[in-house]
Structure formats: C-alpha cells, structure tokens
Design a protein that fits this description.
This protein has 16 helices and 27 strands. It is α+β, with helices and mostly antiparallel strands. The chain folds into four domains: 119 residues, PAS domain (Beta-Lactamase), CATH 3.30.450.20; 232 residues, 4-Layer Sandwich (Phosphatase 2c, domain 1), CATH 3.60.40.10; 126 residues, Heat Shock Protein 90 (2-Layer Sandwich); 94 residues, STAS domain (Transcription Regulator spoIIAA), CATH 3.30.750.24. The strands form six sheets. It has a six-stranded mixed sheet, covered by helices on one side. It has a five-stranded antiparallel sheet with strand order 2-1-5-4-3. The chain has a five-stranded antiparallel sheet with strand order 8-9-10-11-14, covered by helices on one side. Helix 7 runs antiparallel to helix 8, helix 11 packs antiparallel against helix 12 and helix 12 runs antiparallel to helix 13. The protein is flat, with a radius of gyration of 37 Å.
Length: 662
C-alpha cells in the first residue's frame, strides 16, 4: 500500500518512480503544465510554475471556468474543450491572455501546446496543456516592430522630402509642340533611392526649334541634386537666349568654377529644328544620341560623339549634325541604363538600340496606350533593367518628329444647346493635337465659359440666332491660342455670386485672357501653356500611366437619387453648363425640399462645371443656409468639380461625408 492508502505498484515505481518522487519532480519542473479531466475540464494537476503564473495556489478538482472566470470570452476554455472533444492537438504561438492576479488584471503572452490525455482503453479522459510564458520575448518583438515602424515612417518622410526636392529641381514636364512629340522619365538609383544628379530639359525656342538636354552630375544625394539644379539653370538660360548648343555648354564649363561639385559633369545638348529635321548636338563626355528611324526593323543607330570631355575638364567644344525624317525618334539618355550589373558596356549599348527600336515599333509590349515617346521612355527602362536591376540613376528624353495638327475652327449658332457640340469637337481636336488630360480640361472649361458668355449676352436684342466662332491653334512655343468671337454688342461684365462669373473663372484657368470689341463684335483671346508631365519612376511604377485623354464618349446629364445613403443624397454625372444648369437646379430643389432639409450632392461624375453651374450651386447653398439646413457638395480631390469649386472658393468636401469607414 502507498502512504495515501492507494494500491502500490512496484513495477510502476521502477519504471516511472515512486508517486511521492514523481509528484515532487513534476511540481519542481520549470515549465507550466496543467492537467484537466472530463468535459468540464476539472483541474487534476499543475506545476508550481503554472500556479505562480496563474496567481492561484489551490485549484485541484475545480473546473477550469471556475478557476479562471476572467478568461471567459478569450476562447481559452473553448480551445481546450475542442481538444477534449475531437482529440486533435492544438498549438498556439504568442497567444495574448489576461488573468486576475492578487486583485489586478495582468496580461501575458504564452505559447500553448494542448494534447488529449487517454485512458488504458484509448478513450479521451482529459487534456494536458503545456504553457510557455513568452511575455518578455513578445514585448521585445513588438517593441522592435514599433521601432521598425517608426524608422520606416521616418524613412518615408525623408523619401518624400527627397522626392519633392527632385521634382522641384527638375522641370515639371516637357512642352507640347505641334511638330515634335516629347516625353521624359527618371528612375532613381536603387541605393536607398537617394536623390540623384541626373537631369533632363526640353525648351521651346524661337522659330519653332526645341532644345534637348540630358546631363549627369557625379555622385548622389542632396548635394548632387543641388549641383544639378544650378547647372540646369545655366544651360536653360543660355539655350533660351541664344539657341546655340556650343555657347550653352561653354557657359556651363565656365560655371564649374563657381558651382561646387559641377566639375566632371557629363551632358548632351541638342537643338532640333522640326521644320527641316536638322539636329545639332554636342556631347561633353556624355553618351551620344540614339536615332530610331521610322519604319525600320533593324534597330537604332548611335550618332558620333563630339570632341571635348566632361564639363570643366578643358578641351575644345565641337558640334555635330544629323537629320531626322518625319516619324524618326531621337533618344537622349544617361549612362545608368548602360552600366547595368553583370552587363558589359558593349552588350548594354546593343541592347538599348534594339529595345528602343522594339518599343518604338510597339513590338515589345504591344497595345500599350499613350504616345510613342511616352512608351519609349517608360518601357525601355522597364525592359532593360527587369533582369539585371540598376545601381545608378536613369534618365531618358525622347523626341519624335510628327505632322503638325491643323488649326481648330468651329462656328455654331449662339444657343446653349450647341455647347455639347463645342465640347465634343474641341475634345477631338485636343486629342489630335496630343494635348494631355489636365491641359485639355482647362482649355475645354475656358472655351465653354467664353462661348456661354456669348450665348448669354452678345445677342440679347437680336430676334434671330447669330453665330459664335471658336478657333484654336497650337503654337511653336508650346502654347495653345484660343479665340471665341461673336458679332453682337459688348456688355460690361457684372460679377456677382449669381451671374457673371464666366470671364473671372476663365482668367483663373488660362495664362492670358484678353477681350477686344468694336462695332463688328467681340473677340475673347486666351493663351495657355501646355506641358506633358514627365514621370519620376520607382520600382512600383510599371504599368500604363499615359497622359493621353480617354476616348471621347457620349456625355449626357444624369441625376440619380441615392436611397441607400444614410441621409438625403443625389449624384450628378455629366456637364453642368448653360444648357443643363436649370435642370440641375430643379432636381436639387426637389431632392432638398426647396432647402427645407439637408442634402448631399455628389459631384464626382461631373465632367464640366461651368459658371452657370457655379451660380446655381451658390444660389442653392444660400437657400439652404437661410433655412438653417446644409447643402453638402462632395467633389473628390482631382475631379473636375474640385478644380472649379476650389478656383471660385465654393465650399465643398473632398472626402465622402457619408463614408461610414472614416
């Protein structure tokens, strides 16, 4: 007999140890073990270490839920009960659990292994749980993760500053010209994506010529970017003033004495005459231009380098010439696209000529949207580095000779019903002239505003319909010139919150607005500088990102009630102009009970918000304020409605006021 009156088993004593010894050893084990029996999981055994963690000294024979009532809802009992029910072991890493200990709630993290306990007949009799306290390790892991998150946030902030610096020092884009298409792209070096010293420039010159510049300052970082910015200004000023590539490079040579870090910069400067195809260029220690002829399948050809080394190193400057035909493309680039890891310079040079030719002919990734020059500047980089990566900045600047678009001319009756015709015809011309989305939106708004002004005021005393004529032309200086003319009588504009906003809105949209009038009628002249944005690329940039406008589609006015919204709300899609503003006003009045109840108007889908629409929204907003209700105008950032309501200082929200997730 044992000391507690149980049966004594000498064989078990020899195999396992005497009960007193096993109990003593079990209790002293530096692990947390809990034994439970039956479906209620009555506690049958614990180690001292487990009792210390749990903060309880006596729990034998008590169901788990009574021992740890505070764990209800934490799915701990359910986990153990599932092992007892199914016989499937469970292992959980870093489980967070809360216990009551000496009158206070503590939180721990534990690894848990729970296995079924079986009797002699194989039936499940209970559950054995081994628990490892990993609180300190988990807290350290979480602290490390938090430190990493903070470091990542700081890095992202620094990266944002560097990106901003790079974008400010580089031109915002390239000019849009009638006889040459331009595009540029810039990929920063992989090494911490630090700011770099590469740059590009494209400058519209008098006589329709265009200057092309690609350069590479030695080194990386903010200092290299600052040097690049100063050199770029020197070259831009001399090219804009003289159009002479040699004079510009010689001025940059002289500037290396006063610009720190400028010495040994390489640069390729070219001037292209689209009318004759003559390309005059010089390479100051820089790789020469690559010509991709139109319609040829045998790749591009490199021009000869010219005499003279990098800036500030001495040597005579010499210019060379080449001639391009319509459809030919010239590519300026930095050596980052040639000096790829694991590739010798000769192989990379051949690869660039072949890849650029394939992309130009749309053989590489066929069917991509956008202009050929945009495709070359983006896909060439993507294809060249996809297998090798890159360790230096890469800059590409492409120019392709194209036929000039014909000037735009349209005459329609001075009736608001023809505003849609003006928009459609003008959009077609802007697309033919290869004008980007942002500039097209501005030009369309300006023209429709000026045409609406004619329709509202020019022929008030005339019983018949008289014409309004719209013309547009893309100039060699990279600007579009617009004229909207009538044969009516001039009336002085009277700005007010309700009417007369058209001319003021137009003057905010375009660079120049001039009104002239005489006995024969009135002509509104507007000029707007056009820019095609360059792409500052990252590793995540690949994919279609064309500046081209979507294909023109029908643009009907659609006003829909949104009954699923948490409060009264309607959505307006399509144009709100002189022809549709009355309909919009009527529908908003109906939905808002003539101002008696608050209303949200979703302007996300508005394709054109003219001054007539602005006047309606001002008037309705005032009506709601007078009734102590609210007219909430929702126009997301970047939308047409956001652009116009911001210009005219009309209160609106850029985040959805009915978005329950915010």
């Amino acid at each position: 007999m044992t000391s507690d009156g149980g049966d004594h088993d000498p064989a078990a004593d020899r195999r396992i140890g005497r009960c007193e010894d096993v109990r003593r050893v079990f209790d002293a084990m530096p692990v947390l073990v809990l034994g439970m029996a039956g479906p209620e999981l009555e506690v049958t055994a614990t180690t001292a270490a487990y009792r210390v963690l749990a903060g309880r000294s006596e729990m034998i024979g008590v169901p788990f839920r009574e021992v740890f009532p505070e764990t209800m809802g934490q799915q701990i009992f359910e986990m153990f009960a599932g092992v007892h029910r199914t016989g499937n072991p469970v292992q959980v890493r870093a489980m967070r659990a809360q216990f009551e200990q000496q009158g206070r709630r503590i939180e721990v993290f534990v690894d848990v292994i729970a296995v079924p306990q079986r009797g002699a007949d194989g039936e499940i009799t209970g559950v054995i749980a081994q628990v490892t306290d990993v609180t300190e390790q988990e807290r350290e892991r979480l602290a490390t993760q938090e430190r990493a998150n903070v470091a990542e946030a700081r890095y992202a902030q620094a990266r944002g500053v560097i990106d901003t610096l790079q974008r400010e020092l580089l031109p915002a884009g390239v000019p849009v010209l009638p006889r040459v298409e331009l595009a540029a792209s810039y990929l920063l070096a992989d090494a911490d994506t630090a700011a770099g010293g590469d740059w590009y420039d494209a400058i519209a010159l008098p006589g329709g010529h265009v200057a092309l510049v690609v350069g590479d300052v030695v080194g990386h970082g903010v200092a290299a970017s600052a040097t690049m910015g100063r050199l770029r200004i020197v070259l831009e000023e001399h090219l804009a003033g003289t159009g002479d590539v040699l004079a510009a490079v010689r001025a940059a040579d002289a500037a290396t004495d006063r610009i720190p870090g400028a010495r040994a910069t390489t640069v390729c400067v070219a001037v292209l005459d689209p009318a004759t195809g003559l390309l005059t260029y010089t390479t100051a220690g820089h790789p020469p231009p690559l010509i991709v002829p139109a319609g040829l399948d045998d790749g591009g050809r490199y021009l000869e380098t010219t005499a003279g080394g990098p800036l500030g190193t001495g040597g005579e400057r010499v210019a060379a010439t080449a001639r391009l035909a319509t459809g030919d493309l010239v590519l300026l680039y930095t050596d980052g696209i040639l000096e790829r890891p694991g590739q010798d310079l000769g192989t990379s040079t051949v690869d660039l000529a072949r890849v650029a030719a394939d992309v130009t002919a749309d053989r590489a990734l066929p069917g991509s949207p956008g202009l050929t020059v945009e495709r070359v500047c983006e896909q060439t980089i993507e294809l060249m580095i996809r297998a090798t990566g890159h360790t230096d900045d890469i800059t590409l600047l492409a120019a392709q000779l194209t036929p000039a678009p014909a000037a735009f001319a349209l005459t329609v009756p001075a009736d608001t019903g023809f505003l849609a015709t003006i928009r459609t015809e003008l959009d077609d011309w802007l697309d033919t002239a290869r004008v980007g989305r942002a500039d097209s939106t501005a030009i369309r708004h300006a023209v429709v505003e000026l045409a609406t002004n004619v329709m509202d005021h020019a022929y008030l005393d005339a019983p018949d319909l008289y014409p309004v004529t719209v013309t547009a032309d893309l100039t060699d200086t990279g600007r579009v010139e617009l004229r909207v003319a009538d044969q009516g009588r001039w009336r002085e504009p009277r700005p007010s919150p309700d009417r007369g906003l058209g001319l003021h809105l137009t003057s905010d949209i375009v660079d120049v607005l001039q009104i002239s009038h005489d006995a024969r009628g009135t002509t509104a002249f507007a000029r707007h500088r056009l820019t095609r944005p360059a792409r500052l690329l990252t590793a995540e940039s690949w994919g279609p990102a064309s500046s081209a406008r979507p294909a023109p589609q029908a643009d009907p006015l659609i006003i829909l009630d949104q009954p699923s919204a948490p409060r009264p709300r309607i959505r307006v899609d399509g144009p709100i102009d002189g022809a549709t503003a009355g309909t919009v006003e009527h529908e908003i009045l109906a939905a808002g009970a003539t101002g008696a109840r608050s209303l949200t108007v979703d302007l996300t889908g508005v394709t054109h918000l003219a001054s007539a629409g602005v006047a309606v929204l001002h008037r309705l907003a005032a009506l709601h304020r007078g009734n102590e209700t609210e007219l909430v105008l929702f126009a997301p950032v970047g939308s047409n409605a956001d652009m116009i309501t911001t210009l005219v200082d009309l209160a609106h929200r850029t985040l959805d006021p009915d978005d329950a997730t915010r």
